[in-house]
Amino acid sequence: MAQKSRTLFISHSHVDSDAARDVADEWTRWGYGVDADFRDKALLKAARDQVMTPALADHLRRIILGCKVFVFLVSEKSAQSGWMPWELGLAHGAIGRVHLYLLQANALEAFDAQGCEYLRLYEDCTFSVDNARVYL
């Protein structure tokens, strides 16, 4: 089990913040270092105020690049997120280890309906609450 801080980054929609916090707390108890916007004061304020600046985007980029694994929380509502695709593209190109965590079994269908079929590229590295501990 990983013991280093900043091992995982959780990308999530603001509408899934409670679920993302629950996941982060659980994975932290398992011994993983977990980063997410709600664990960073500047990013938390930006999310609350709905204001992102180039400096904050660069700060977010540095946090994501400091992680070994990027986890994209997929829900029926996260297909509406404007920032998650940006984070995903950055992580895919820079980290390489991108994984989808399904909050609902049919969550990928919402992305398909939005024309975001690119998430299907990651189906072989998709996991859920049922197998997260084994998968990570």
Topology record:
Blueprint lengths: L7 E4 L5 H13 L4 E2 L5 H9 L4 H12 L3 E6 L9 H11 L3 E5 L4 H7 L12 E3 L3 H4 L1
Parallel strand pairs: 1-2, 1-3, 3-4, 4-5
Walkthrough of the structure:
With 136 residues, the protein is an alpha/beta fold. The chain has one domain (8-135): Rossmann fold, CATH 3.40.50. Helix content is 41%, strand content 15%. The chain is built from six helices and five strands; from the N terminus they run βαβααβαβαβα. It has a five-stranded parallel β-sheet, sandwiched between helices. The model has no long low-confidence stretch (mean pLDDT 87).
Q: How many strand units?
A: 5
Provide the CATH top-level class.
Alpha Beta
Count of alpha/pi helices: 6
Radius of gyration: 14 Å
Derived from helix and strand composition plus strand pairing, the structural class reads alpha/beta
Encode the helix/strand succession as letters: EHEHHEHEHEH
Shape: globular
> Strand order across the biggest sheet?
2-1-3-4-5
- What's the architecture in CATH terms? 3-Layer(aba) Sandwich
Percentage of residues assigned to helices? 40-55%
Overall pLDDT confidence: 87
What is the rounded distance between the termini?
Answer: 8 Å
**Largest sheet data:** 5 strands, parallel
CATH topology: Rossmann fold
Count structural domains: 1
Bin the strand percentage: 5-15%
Assembly type of the shown chains?
Answer: single chain
Q: Would you identify the regions where 5 or more consecutive residues have pLDDT less than 50?
A: none
